[in-house]
């Protein structure tokens, strides 16, 4: 999936966060690497799908990747109508982001093998 997106010209966008109070750096790839080391949880997106020179970044401060970020505008400018969400924590950040994408009338996919839950039973919930 990941390599297909990149070779197919599909934009790959990372939503980075400040880790342990450290503000984002100019090269956000460093933030993704720090997130991997700092969380203590498996990060399937960060480790298996590392950013490359073509990756785009938005900085987020809350659970949803849309909350007070330019992501909605960026997706609109790219002509996107479908988002594939990967990352951690499935029952929090991924869920809130999926709901926000849905209210923006975007189609949403969440591959099970590209997310990491805190509680497996909560992560298995499905939305119709």
Question: Could you explain how this protein is built, in words?
Answer:
This protein is an alpha/beta fold and 128 residues long. It contains 6 helices and 6 strands, in the order H-E-H-H-E-H-E-E-H-E-E-H. The protein has helices at residues 2-7, 28-39, 44-48, 71-78, 90-103, 120-123, and strands at 13-17, 56-60, 82-84, 87-88, 107-109, 115-116. The strands form 3 sheets. A two-stranded parallel sheet has the order 1-2. The longest helix is centred in the C-terminal third of the chain and has 14 residues, at 90-103. It starts with a helix and ends in a 5-residue tail after the last helix.
Topology (elements, then pairings):
Blueprint: H1 2-7, E1 13-17, H2 28-39, H3 44-48, E2 56-60, H4 71-78, E3 82-84, E4 87-88, H5 90-103, E5 107-109, E6 115-116, H6 120-123
Parallel strand pairs: 1-2, 3-5, 4-6
